[in-house]
Amino acid sequence: MIAKRTIHAALLIACLTLNGCGRRGADDVLVASVIGTAPRIADPDRTLLTGPDAELIRTTRQGLVAFDANGQVEPALAESWTFTKDGLSAIFRLRRLRWANGGEVTGSEVAASLNRAIAPGSHNALKPLLAAIDTVVGMTDHVVEIRLKAPRPNLLELLAQPELAIRNRGSGTGPWVMADNEHDAIILHSVKDDNDPETDVVTPPPIAKVVMRGERAGIAVARFMAQRGGFVTGGTLGDWPIAQAAQLRSGMIRFDPAEGLFGLAVVPEIAMMQDAGMRAALSMAIDRDTLVAGFGIARWRAIDRLLPAQLDSAQPPVSPSWSAAALTDRQAEARRRITAWVATHGTPAPLRIALPKGPGMKILFARITADWRAVGLDAVRVDHDASNADLRLIDEVAPNASANWYLTRTGCGAGLPCAATADAALKASRIAPDLVHRSIEIATADAAAAEGAAYIPLAWPVRWSLVDFALTGFHENSFAVHPLAELRLQRN
């Protein structure tokens, strides 16, 4: 309670610093904050995108397809597409558009942009999920073909991600263009239809001007409280106590039913973390229901398995063997295993848990370590990027509704303890001749991953936004994507 009052007082001070609470900006301008660092027009083939980077790319560069406000795929650069019957070719018909720098968009330029993402030297975050793409070909100026080595029914969801937005010499196709930098903000103006008979008619977004910032959660929430901003997005569990302490009106805080990973990835450097039985002991000792309940987030769900649903697996998701046991029995078994380990190997050093910054992470750390102390293990907190971590939090929303991402993100290639059976099955799924065989291999990989316990699931990811009542067009969705082009300002 004291901590919440302290945060609330800090927000009120910040609110007053922003020239007083209760004042609105212009009715025709959207002031949007994305929680994080200042946004950059980054190259996703060379560097990982931050949340603000991704949002800026969504506003200035289109992919072949995009997500709408409900998280459903809709046309973007491509006005239509079709898959061949064998699922090995996806053909996209492009709209006639121009780059922001004036040149006409061609199929060869679009193909080149996508081929860079899958090239051998690419560091694109989605590259591990694109191994089924053989090549991308510009068949004509207005037709692009993606040739696949194996069918991928969830390909469109990946193509809608900002990592695969189409660019040419750094230029995109809107729906906004960067007009200026104003202190700590980027000013975006909508792309206007120039009545060019050689291009398709462009319908500008409902909001003509956007002022976008990447900033810390405390500043973003204070700006919203001061009515100097109408939209905040990118909130996570780490920032949640800040928004909670703001005591905003009901309906302004919106939570996405995000699907993805929120749990601890094991770093197999010390002997204890190399033992699957000990990793399972850590997982079974956690009281997930109490952990989740302590944050006061409606409909937030604890989870003790890797996959949130069956997805494209041949079997329902596999829970660990101890999942159905009572908490007291689970913790007794964890204590027995740890006691036996200590008797053989000696008392281990405190486990180092790498967590991001934020008040929510302090609460998370306290809850997990209380459960581990109860079964005989101590832990300390280290920075999220610490090189000496024993466990590191993964807090990510899945880019598509496929088990492939979950298994890849927590598998051998991601630096977690390697379960040979899971790795072999995952690799086999990527070259499976059809979707039936692929689903069987995915089920095998899921079962082996559950036994290996290289990843300790905790809950579904938390993603929250603040939405002014003057904004319409916002919808919660499982991808936690909220295109600014879908938002509308209601005039007073």
Record keyword descriptors for this entry.
D-Maltodextrin-Binding Protein, domain 2, SBP_5, 3 domains, 5-stranded mixed beta sheet, peptide transmembrane transporter activity, about 500 residues, Dipeptide-binding Protein, domain 1, 20 strands, alpha+beta, about 30% helix, Dipeptide-binding Protein, domain 3, signal, 13 helices, 7-stranded mixed beta sheet, transport
Explain what you see.
There is one protein chain. With 492 residues, the protein is of the alpha+beta class. The protein has helices spanning 2-17, 51-60, 107-118, 155-159, 217-225, 240-245, 276-284, 288-293, 327-345, 359-374, 403-409, 420-430, 435-452; strands at 29-35, 65-67, 73-75, 78-83, 89-94, 133-140, 143-148, 176-182, 185-190, 209-215, 231-235, 253-255, 260-266, 351-355, 379-383, 391-397, 455-459, 464-467, 471-472, 488-489. The protein folds into 3 domains: 1-60 and 174-254 and 463-492, D-Maltodextrin-Binding Protein, domain 2, CATH 3.40.190; 62-172, Dipeptide-binding Protein, domain 1, CATH 3.90.76.10; 260-459, Dipeptide-binding Protein, domain 3 (Roll). The protein has a 7-stranded mixed sheet. Strands 15-14-16-13-17 form a 5-stranded mixed sheet, sandwiched between helices. Strand 8 (176-182) and strand 9 (185-190) form a beta hairpin. Helix 7 runs antiparallel to helix 9. The radius of gyration is 24 Å and the shape is globular. It starts with a helix and ends with a strand.
